[in-house]
Design brief:
The structure holds 2 protein chains of 2 kinds. Chain A is mainly alpha-helical. Chain A has 8 helices and 2 strands; from the N terminus they run H-E-E-H-H-H-H-H-H-H. Chain A has helices at about 1-10, 50-70, 80-100, 110-125, 140-160, 165-170, 180-225, 230-275, and strands at about 40-45, 45-50. In chain A, strands 1-2 form a two-stranded antiparallel sheet. In chain A, a hairpin with a 2-residue loop joins strand 1 and strand 2. Chain A starts with a helix and ends with a helix. Chain B is mainly α. In chain B, helix 1 (about 20-150) packs across helix 2 (about 160-180). The relative contact order of chain B is 0.03. Classes of the chains: A mainly alpha, B mainly alpha. Chains A and B meet through strand 2, helix 2, helix 3, helix 4 and helix 5 of A and helix 1 of B.
């Protein structure tokens, strides 16, 4: 759907190599990430643009809630298939992220981290789900929204557990020669307040953006090269094959980026609880 | 739309963060988190703990019953060994008794046999002596009868004649003995 839209945005839909209209390769650009607004809702005097990304984010929230609610509605000691599946996801975040990074105290943050992981992962997965085919996290606003939630969470926890030491320990790391503070203090403060949230959101955004652009390029390529000639058939088939392989690779990246985003959140929360140095 | 990062001149910027999308994203995640943290995760957390307890309890019970079984096995083995020793003792005793009984029976039988043999020998001796006496008389009678026939008169009841014959026989015996 997004692919057709993309092609439609750039050129006519029947644009082929050596075609009648003699058009060049309609390479997809960043334009494919600017979704046409379906409607505008005015809530409390503010305009909310309803685009595909917004519809998908509502869908993702619904799917994640529905899955875990039905899986864990009446949990049994001997789990059924759905509960077993939900438990795999829950214990994965608990054992691989919360306990691994934060330790025993991490159990308190398992609900937050599990929600975060599955919200990000299913949002990413929308990039390859037929019909959706738009990774929500390739719209920077959504990674930024999640990063801000994580940011305020670990800032709050840092002040709650360490008080002002949370900032002073970060700015003046103990066990470092005093002269080094000239160099270290600005960097450490920049790291705590700016670099962490910016990199955390940009990393997720850029991965989803690039992956989606790459898949779209090869999909459009397969369509463009499709023409009654040897180059047309071979080129189109190759491009399609690459699209399939890239889609598989992209699914791996989607899971990995969701994992990294959640892992970083856990690392920052753990640092706020214990102090880093 | 209100743009935070994108400049006003550059509306179509991929780094734009529209405030409405930011709010929608925050609210969507907030709803997911609160719904799951309230209605889904507490139940499963409790169940996972219960399961861990059940498994640990099961393991402990299994260990206990295994230890019990091992103790029981040791006890049985000890009893078996005891029973075997006892059986061996009983067998040895029985063997000894049997042997002594056989010995007693043998010696009794030998004694009885000796008595019987002795008696039989004595009887045989007596019978032989009797037979010898009777034979001697018969021989002397025969000799007298023969001599009487030769002499022409009867010497049967003659004591002297008998004594002569007897002496003759005794001489014969002495000669036989001397040879």
């Amino acid at each position: 759907m997004s692919v057709i839209t993309a092609v439609g945005n750039v050129a006519t839909e029947s644009c082929h190599l050596n075609g009648a209209n003699n058009c060049g390769f309609p390479a997809p650009s960043a334009d494919i990430f600017f979704l046409e607004p379906y409607a505008t809702l005015n809530i409390f005097g503010m305009d909310f643009t309803i685009s595909k990304a917004v519809i998908l984010v509502v869908l993702v929230a619904t799917v994640v809630i529905a899955f875990f609610m039905s899986a864990f509605r009446s949990p049994k000691l001997i789990p059924g298939k759905l509960q077993g599946l939900g438990e795999i996801g829950y214990t994965f975040v608990r054992d691989q992220i919360a306990r691994e990074v934060i330790g025993k105290e991490g159990d308190k943050f398992v609900p937050f981290l599990t929600s975060l992981f599955f919200f990000v992962w299913i949002s990413n997965l929308m990039g390859v789900v037929p019909g959706a085919q738009f990774p929500i996290m390739s719209s920077l606003a959504f990674p930024v929204a999640l990063t801000l939630i994580v940011y305020f969470t670990y800032m709050f926890l840092g002040f709650k557990h360490q008080g002002t030491k949370f900032i002073t320990d970060a700015a003046f790391p103990p066990g470092v020669p005093k002269a080094m503070y000239i160099l270290l203090t600005p960097l450490e403060l920049l790291q705590l307040f700016v670099t962490r949230p910016v990199t955390q959101s940009i990393r997720l955004f850029a991965n989803m953006f690039a992956g989606h652009l790459l898949i779209t390029t090869f999909t459009v390529g397969a369509w463009y090269l499709l023409s009654p000639s040897i180059i047309g058939i071979l080129g189109s088939a190759t491009s399609f094959g690459v699209t399939v392989v890239l889609t598989g690779f992209e699914m791996f990246i989607q899971g990995l980026q969701a994992f990294i985003f959640t892992l970083l959140a856990a690392v920052y929360i753990g640092g706020s609880l214990h102090g880093e140095h | 739309m209100i743009h935070i990062l994108a400049s006003a001149a550059e509306q179509q910027n991929i780094l734009r963060v529209p405030l409405d999308e930011l709010i929608i994203g925050t609210v969507a995640f907030g709803i997911v988190f609160f719904a799951l943290a309230k209605f889904a995760f507490p139940a499963i957390s409790k169940t996972l703990e219960e399961r861990a307890d059940a498994i640990e309890g099961g393991l402990r019970r299994a260990e206990d019953s295994q230890a019990e079984a091992a103790a029981l096995l040791d006890q049985y083995r000890a009893q078996l060994a005891e029973a075997r020793t006892e059986a061996a003792n009983i067998r040895a005793q029985a063997q000894a008794e049997k042997n002594s009984m056989i010995e007693t029976a043998k010696s009794e039988a030998a004694a009885a046999a000796a008595v019987v043999t002795e008696r039989a020998q004595a009887q045989m001796e007596a019978e032989r002596a009797q037979a010898l006496t009777s034979l001697r008389r018969d021989v002397s009678d025969l000799a007298l009868t023969l001599a009487g026939k030769v002499v022409g008169e009867t010497l049967t009841d003659d004591a002297r004649a008998r004594a002569t014959v007897d002496r003759f026989i005794a001489d014969l015996e002495a000669q036989a003995a001397n040879k």
